[in-house]
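[Solved] Which block belongs to which protein?

Original post:
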Amino acid sequence: MQNYSTTAATAIGFISIVLWGTLALLTKLTDGAIPPLQLMAMTFFLAYLGMQIRWLYRGESGFRYLKQPKKVWLVGIGGYLSYHFCYFAAMARAPAVDVSLIAYLWPLFIVLFSALLPGENLKVKHTLGAVLALTGCALIITQGGNGLSSEYAAGYLFAAACALIWSSYSVLTRLISQVSTGIVGWYCLFTAVLAAIAHFIFEQTVLPETSIQWIGIVGLALGPMGLAFFTWDYGMKRGNIQLLGVLSYSAPLISTLLLVLFTDELLTKTLLVACLLIVIGSVIAGVKFEKKAHIKT
């Protein structure tokens, strides 16, 4: 039976999923004018600054979180940097819709990989819920598209790497649950520095020109590329990892609904069916089946 603390941690982890649902809308505010590595460096650095302000408010510097084994840094910085590198590489080599579909296999992988963790059991309801939610996610992303094409094979491989990297990072986080979530602040800083170095090597710097672009950048740093990583770390370490994996499929649904509300995107029948599949999958994965006691006569 799931205790209160596990339920609370799962709810905190779900905050990340909601925030990731705002990613497309906030990115749209930047007008696509900011190079991806530069945007990554800016948002992760702002996320670090936010955590540094919190540390100072609490009367600490955050340096105590730096004393960690090498495996902690390998999991954290390796996960952040390699995931985003593969994501941008995939986007440059294949259509965005195809990349999103393949990369969004990571929630299903989380559900499956969680069976390898000590004390975790993968149940049929988790797998069934994940598959239904994945189907709904695929409907949202493809919107009745024509499928994948072999000419984008390199991009598909990078997208598949995204799914494996983020799911592996998420599950491995469980194995270092004794490490405070405060370490994520340093993950953000080091990732920002490495992204900035790559930006200056491979990209041309573009300064934001409008207040709307700055709103998008700050919004990304505070939400899907900031706070979301802290709440995800907490949820993965202390929450119901299988349920969070299935609930992650609601991120593209939230994203699409926000675009429908605030842009010229249209609400379609496909979106409604996808919504139903994701909700049903999440309910199946999260419902508790109680065994009834048999009374002997």
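(Second protein starts here: sequence line, then its structure tokens.)
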Amino acid sequence: MQRKNLTEVTEFIFLGFSSFGKHQTTLFVVFLTVYIFTLAGNIIIVTITCVDRHLHTPMYFFLSTLASSETVYTLVIVPRMLSSLVFYNQPISLPGCATQMFFFVTLAINNCFLLTAMGYDRFVAICAPLRYTVIMCKRMCASLVCGSFGTGLMMATLQVTAMFNLPFCGTLVDHFFCDIHPVMKLSCVDTTVNEIINYGVSSFVILVPIGLITISYILIIYSILKIATADGRKKAFATCASHLTVVIVHYGCASIAYLKPKSESSVEKDLLLSVTYTIITPLLNPVVYSLRNKEVKDALRRAVGRSVS
């Protein structure tokens, strides 16, 4: 569907998973199931962290903040995606598309820097344990969270403003939400400046956190190796294992999605990657921290015990 008069383009239509035909009902059931588990897992983490005083520490403050951000992040994208699997060719207005893109970019970048803050927390806990409570005070934790969200707001404002100053000729978005690259393809003018902006932002919010986390873990491993006992080394590394697992999957997907060469892009690959970082990765956070973290499991047992009593 093309429109000759640029001013007539007032809405977009997502093609989404239309190429999957009769399998869309199956996809709806699968995605809905995963989404319910994602919401339940993140809400449980936020709730258990708030009500259990044993989890009132910087590490779990960052974890509950990340879980809250992931919850809103999925709310921005997944409900509309599920709706499009049932009711085909649902339009979205340009302001609606801009709003969805703004919240998606803000929260995605916020999550990247929250994971960096969690890496710094682990670094201080292992490399400077005697000064941990002094360094990771409430003011520092709040500053790291506000800095993460503020960075997301600034980057999202830059990207979305640049995007929606473009004139659009097409209305069919070959995607299931207003992601940057699929929407940019609908512009009928040269988008080189936008591509430079988006690649610069993507490089900054992926490579800088990866660099900081890598430095933190190099220092953490160095400190762990100096621990005399095997049990002590195992216990120290166990406190980092969950975070490291989430980091590898999160930044792995983000790097492939936003730093890969344009020539390697295809609709099928982009859809698969988008499903991974919008549906699968948010589920990873509660699953990893619930199954691998003894303190969270103990807190859940205490909460269940109080409920039974």
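Accepted answer:
You had them paired correctly. Confirming on the second one: The chain has ten helices and three strands.
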